[in-house]
Structures are given as C-alpha cells and as structure tokens.
Design goal:
The protein is α/β, with parallel strands linked by helices. The protein contains eleven helices and eleven strands. It has a six-stranded mixed β-sheet. Strands 4-5-6-8-7 form a five-stranded mixed β-sheet, with no helix packed on it. The chain starts with a helix and ends with a strand.
C-alpha cells in the first residue's frame, strides 16, 4: 500500500525534448536579406565548428529571404551557391525570393518588388541608382533579364519549401496549424504570419522559421523564430541543433562596423 502511494505521488518523468537524428548537427540560419558581410562571418564561424567536430554529420539550412533590403543580395546568392559545393547546404524559398522571381513576369509585379526591398537587390545586380531614377518601369522590366541571368533565376527557383529533421521541421514563414505537414500550401509556408504565430497548441513537429522579426530568438515550445532582422539590426542568427540540445550562434555588427561572433546558450 505504501509503495502504491509513493508511485501515486511520484512526479511524472520530464517531457522528452525534441531531437535531430543522432550523429547530426544542424545549423538553421535566419533571413540574411543581402547582408553578405554578416553571412560571410557566419559561414566562417560555422566552418570553424565543423573542423573542430569531424565526427558529426553537419547540415546547414538557410531559411529563405537571402535577397532584398540589404546591400548585396547578388553576393549572398552566389556565396550560398558556392557554399553548397563544399558543404551539405539546403536553401528554403522565402517570400522575397518569390517576389523577385515574379518581378520578371510583369511590370506590376516588378513595381511591388521594388517597393519591398527589391530596389537594393536590383542595384546589387548592376543597375545604378541613376538608371533606376531615370528609367520608366517598363524599361527596367525589359532590362532586368539582361542583368540577372536565367541561370541565376533557375537557381533561386530551385529553393525548397520545407525540410524535416527528426522532431523538427524548417520552413520560411511558418505553417497552417490546422493542416498536417503533408498538406501545407506553399503560400502559407512562405507568407503566413498571425494564424501561425498566435497558435499556442502543439504542432506536428517543432517549427523553426524566419520571416517575422524578433529582437531575440523566440522559442515558444511549438515553434522557434530566428529572424533577428539582420538587414537593420546587424544581427544574423543561426540556431544550432544537436541531439536534444539547442544553442544559438550570431554574427553581430558593433558600433564601429566590425563583426563579432556570439555563442549563446539554449534560447528562451
């Protein structure tokens, strides 16, 4: 009887923490938005960690929005492509990649793109500020395919929409919490906001996402937001997952303009 009472009052075992597959380490990098300087610093920090842990299978996921707003979208895209030649790097499509590709389809889509960060992207591909100010929208539309190659557009169009790893799923914006992962719509994966962010119940997997800017990593249990607004804050964040452990890695610009690497503990 006493033993039964002890078992009744014994606290329940702690909940199992979400995990990535054994032997792997995942780096999920938030929205880069043309900040090649921060991206290069992040790559160097990740490469240093990879060299120090040769026994692990390292996987890198870029969460989308490589382009727009920051000064060197073209450089970011090419650096990501080069990194894929040496490491296991997968790239998710963001809503800004979708707007970029749509800009080649009709002038009105180009107008929308230019208003939402595309102006900086077009400059990075070789247009001058003087040209953009002088040319009519239709003229920019006609010239754009001449400065952004079809090969580059095809490469950006090849970006993925969802990546799964163990108890985690990686997407750009989030998921529709009312649908199974297998039935998600592309539009939600790239654009969703309030319906996903306001959902407090459990999800099929822990969702790691960007798209919505937070001052710090936002770990809500069912989702982890890691877009720290690199283009304006000077802070590019990566979430590092290994087994059931989490930590953050950040490339941060200081007041003098130099970049430092911050190694953080489990996000809260």
């Amino acid at each position: 009887m006493l033993q039964k009472l002890r078992e009744f009052f014994r606290p329940p075992p702690p909940a199992k923490l979400p995990e990535v597959p054994a032997g792997t380490r995942y780096y999920a990098v938030g929205d880069i938005h043309g900040r090649l300087d921060l991206f290069n610093a992040m790559i160097a920090a990740i490469e240093e960690e990879i060299v120090a842990a040769p026994g692990l299978d390292h996987r890198i996921i870029l969460l989308g929005d490589l382009v727009d707003r920051g000064p060197d979208s073209a450089g970011v895209v090419e650096r990501a492509r080069a990194w894929q030649q040496t490491r296991k790097v997968r790239i998710l499509a963001g809503n800004h990649e979708e707007m970029f590709l749509a800009a080649f389809t009709k002038p009105e889509a180009l107008r929308h793109f230019l208003k939402h960060g595309g102006h900086e992207t077009v400059l990075s591909y070789g247009f001058s500020s003087k040209q953009l100010a002088k040319l009519e929208l239709e003229e920019i539309f006609e010239r754009l395919p001449q400065v952004v190659s079809q090969e580059t557009r095809d490469y950006i169009a090849s970006f993925e929409t969802m990546i799964r790893a163990g108890d985690y799923v990686f997407v750009h914006a989030g998921i529709d919490p009312t649908r199974p992962l297998a039935e998600q719509k592309r539009s939600d994966l790239l654009w969703i906001r309030e319906r996903f962010l306001n959902h407090e119940g459990p999800l099929e997997k822990v969702v790691v996402h960007g798209h919505t800017i937070f001052d710090q990593v936002m770990d809500c249990g069912n989702r982890i937001g890691i877009d720290t607004g690199a283009f304006r804050s000077g802070v590019l964040t990566a979430l590092v997952l290994e087994g059931d452990q989490r930590r953050i890695l950040q490339a941060c610009t200081d007041e003098a303009g130099s970049i430092a690497i911050f190694h953080g503990e489990r996000p809260h």
